[in-house]
Design a protein that fits this description.
Blueprint: H1 5-24, H2 28-32, E1 35-39, H3 53-85, H4 94-125, H5 134-138, E2 141-145, H6 148-163, H7 167-209, H8 226-236
Antiparallel strand pairs: 1-2
Helix pairs in contact: 1-3, 1-7, 3-4
Family: Belongs to the pex2/pex10/pex12 family.
Domain Pex N-terminal: 2-206
GO molecular function, one term: zinc ion binding
């Protein structure tokens, strides 16, 4: 399980983000703060609460797939750099040369990657850009605050759709609902887990800082008079 931890986490994150993008037009974190995504196209109807399929797929790509690839590249870079520093890639083969070229070039790629995020954040802070992240821009969306009708629309559609479906489509709809329930369980577990970790941190901090009832008070340091110091110095001399 630990060997495929990243893949399992990515699959669960994919289920979670796909559910929230379909149901709330925003990622899990964006929905938590009352934010949704709308398409940047001017011909997109503002009353349509659902994301276009192209924006949804690009959002999943930027929220899940690209961070997973970047994480794997970071791990690969650290592993190859360690092998090169320890002399385990000293062979003069084509594959070793490619690995060494990757280790030499990747820090600059990482610098451009992180620098682009910093530029977008600074531009957004000073009102020069509508996007706080290049991923949001690549997704073809903008972030806006949710309205009351956005919160009510998710509860009206499921009952109306179920009555019009055939038997095969109802089975597919049931499978989709099971996946959505899995996503809701994950989101609830994340919220409860974060609260539990914060509670443990508060408990541990307060327990360490609280004085013990059985502990004796720390005495003040002894005061040495000037005459005693002179006598002691005279004794050692």
């Amino acid at each position: 399980m630990l060997r495929f931890y990243d893949e399992i986490y990515t699959i669960l994150d994919l289920i979670l983000q796909n559910y929230y993008l379909h149901s709330h037009s925003g990622s899990f974190a964006e929905n938590f703060y009352g934010i949704k995504r709308i398409a940047c196209q001017k011909d997109q109807k503002q009353e349509d609460t659902k994301l276009p399929r192209s924006c949804l797929l690009k959002s999943i790509l930027c929220l899940v797939i690209l961070p997973y690839i970047k994480h794997k590249l970071d791990f690969m870079f650290e592993e190859l750099r360690h092998k090169i520093n320890t002399g385990r890639l000293s062979q003069n083969t084509l594959l070793c040369k490619l690995y060494k070229a990757f280790v030499a070039v990747y820090p600059y790629v990482h610098m451009v990657w992180e620098g682009s995020f910093l530029v977008y954040l600074i531009s957004y802070m000073f009102g020069k850009s509508k996007w706080h992240s290049p991923f949001v821009r690549l997704s073809g969306v903008e972030l806006v605050h949710q309205q009351e009708e956005d919160l009510q629309s998710t509860h009206v559609q499921s009952s109306e759709v179920w009555q019009d479906l055939s038997l095969n489509n109802k089975l597919l709809f049931a499978c989709k609902t099971a996946v959505n329930l899995t996503a809701v369980t994950l989101s609830t577990g994340l919220s409860v887990g974060v609260f539990f970790l914060q509670f443990l941190d508060w408990w541990y901090t307060s327990d360490n800082n609280a004085p013990s009832l059985l502990a004796m008070p720390t005495p003040d340091p002894p005061k040495v008079s000037g005459i005693l110091v002179i006598i002691m110095l005279h004794h050692y001399w």
